Amino acid sequence: MRLPDFWTGLIFAAIGVAIAAYAQTFHVPAGAASPKLLPTIVGSFMALFGGLIALRGWQETKQVALPGWLAAPRQVILVVFLPAAVLAFGLLAPVVGSTVMAVTILTLHSILYGIRPIYALLLGVTLGTLVTLLFIHGLGIPLPAGLVEELFS
Fold first, then answer.
1. How far is Cα 136 from Cα 150, in angstroms, rounded to an integer?
2. pLDDT at position 1, please?
3. Which of 20, 25, 60, 82 has the fewest Cβ atoms within 10 angstroms?
4. Average pLDDT by consecutive 10-residue portion of the chain (153 residues)?
């Protein structure tokens, strides 16, 4: 299932604009290189080339229709779930902890893919805990701590 060039270009252009706009909110320390320069450049190029791809896609087809998978609610949920899960992890892990978020995300993802809830929960608990332990103790990467992480430390 391939998105037509028009929609792909439009999405990249929108993400590029968002990156460049968000970069303008970064604090600029006195006498230092601006931390907004690189994201502004990358976002601007994404917007420019995404717009060019969208324009080429529009010119080639002269007719833009929504992708067929948008008619299937399950497909839409599967496509939206991953970015939503990443966003939820970033926002909620500092509050509830990385392990709780990893278990929740993995369990929900498994259920969405058709695994029976009891097996999905078992998979989520096992892999969520192992991944958190691997990052914290194996790789030495500090993750946001919650109640469960307090037990591991």
1. 12
2. 30
3. 25
4. 71 91 81 76 92 84 68 82 89 88 95 94 94 85 75 63
102 contact partners, CB below 8 Å, separation of at least 6 = 89, 124, 127, 128, 129, 131, 132
The full set of domain ranges for the chain reads 5-60, 69-152
Alpha-carbon distance of 107 to 133, in angstroms, equals 17
Q: Give the 3-state secondary structure of 68-110.
A: HHHHCHHHHHHHHHHHHHHHHHHHHHHHHCHHHHHHHHHHHHH
Work out the mean pLDDT of the chain and round it to a whole number.
84
Q: Angle, nearest 10°, between helix axes 117-133 and 98-112?
A: 140
Q: Is the model's pTM score more than 0.90?
A: no
CB 104 within 8 A of CB 124: yes
